[in-house]
Write a structure and sequence with these properties.
The protein is about 65% helix and about 5% strand. By secondary structure, the protein is mainly α. The protein has one domain: Winged helix-like DNA-binding domain superfamily/Winged helix DNA-binding domain (Arc Repressor Mutant, subunit A), CATH 1.10.10.
């Protein structure tokens, strides 16, 4: 599945600078195309729904969390900005989907929890998103395990070093 524009771009860069290693372009372009396909599938699920795909991304980790979750922890876990998470949580709270309560051991922090309505929405909508993603992956067949292994290796290779 070679993209003709990408092939022309690589060729142009190689003509312009023959010593330039353009091989990362292939991996990054494929990752971006895959991400865009999954985002489009999710957006179809949430089009006209009570939640957006971005809101669901924040809510899913809360569904079965056994420990108190703060907005800061959510932002870190999801690699999102604190300001963006806070703004989204405020909108969700105003709609009765989440609630914030005082943290049991840190008075400066608030714990984020789903309301009964929030749980109902996730339980109804998230399986639809998973189904949309499964349809995209259906063509992999037996290649699925090696793809997972390759993606795991890639995720490890690009992960920031742990402290």
């Amino acid at each position: 599945m070679q993209d003709p524009l990408r092939a022309l771009t690589v060729a142009a860069w190689q003509d312009h600078n023959p010593d330039l290693d353009t091989s990362p372009m292939e991996i990054v372009a494929l990752i971006n195309a895959i991400g865009a396909a999954f985002d489009a599938a999710a957006e179809q699920v949430y089009s006209g729904a009570e939640l957006s795909a971005a809101e669901m991304k924040l809510l899913v980790p809360l569904r079965f969390s056994s420990e108190p979750v703060t907005a800061v922890r959510l932002a870190e876990r999801l690699n999102m900005s604190r300001a963006g998470v806070s703004k989204t949580l405020s909108r969700l709270e105003a709609r009765g989907i989440i609630e914030r309560r005082h943290h049991p051991t840190d008075r400066r922090a608030a714990v984020v929890r789903l309301t009964a309505d929030g749980i109902h929405l996730i339980d109804r909508l998230f399986p639809q998103e998973l189904d949309a993603h499964a349809r995209l992956l259906a063509g992999l067949g037996p290649e699925r395990l090696p793809v997972v292994a390759a993606l795991t290796a890639l995720a490890s290779a690009v992960a920031p070093p742990t402290r």
